[in-house]
Amino acid sequence: MWEPPPEHPLRRLFAGLAEHAFFSHLGVADPPLIDYLSGLLARFVHNDDLYQLRGASGRPLTELAELVIEAERLPAGGRTRRDYYRHIGDFALFWTGVYPEAVERQRSRAGKDAFVSYTAQGKRGYLLTSRMEEQQHHDAEAGLYRRLSDQFEVCALGLRAVRDDLNRMQVRE
After folding, report:
1. Which of 56, 62, 73, 143 is the most exposed place for a label (fewest CB within 10 A)?
2. What is the pTM of this model?
């Protein structure tokens, strides 16, 4: 998983846009949450990170339903299961916030995701991740994932505002 350092220009761009969107448009002042979301945007610039998890066949998991099924097959606890649930939250939040029209197209197709609520599964993924972090005594991280779960819809709105700002930047050029 590629995680750009905070000083990377792409990360700084997303951090500025996310801060503006969350502070100005939504009135959300939560720097760790906003930092996490700007990192999510920078990570998912690469499709390899968006589709990083693989199924039993070795092919990338591209549908949310597949991710959930695979996570449920893993042994309870452990880093791998936590990573899957975190990725489920990230995956669902990214698509719900940045490309909601793609989620609607996915739901209208005859695939597994036609029966899945991205919002419900994203909230669940972050909630389960927070509980696993609590078990590992990582209280700050657990709190962040709990806020991502509790404020999933607000985070999606903020990511949509970031996308809108990016679109306006392109029009001006």
Report:
1. 56
2. 0.90
